[in-house]
Amino acid sequence: MGSDDTPAPGAATRESATRARTRRAILDAAVSVLTADHSASLGDVAEAAGVGRTTVHRYFPERSDLLAAIGTDVRDRVAAASERARLADGPAPEAMERLCLEYFELGDRMLLLYDVPQFLAWSGIEEESAADLALLALVRRGQKDGTLDPEVDVSWLQDVMWALLYAAWMQARDQGTPKHTALSLCLRTLRKAVAP
Question: Which residues form the signal peptide (predicted)?
Answer without folding.
Answer: none
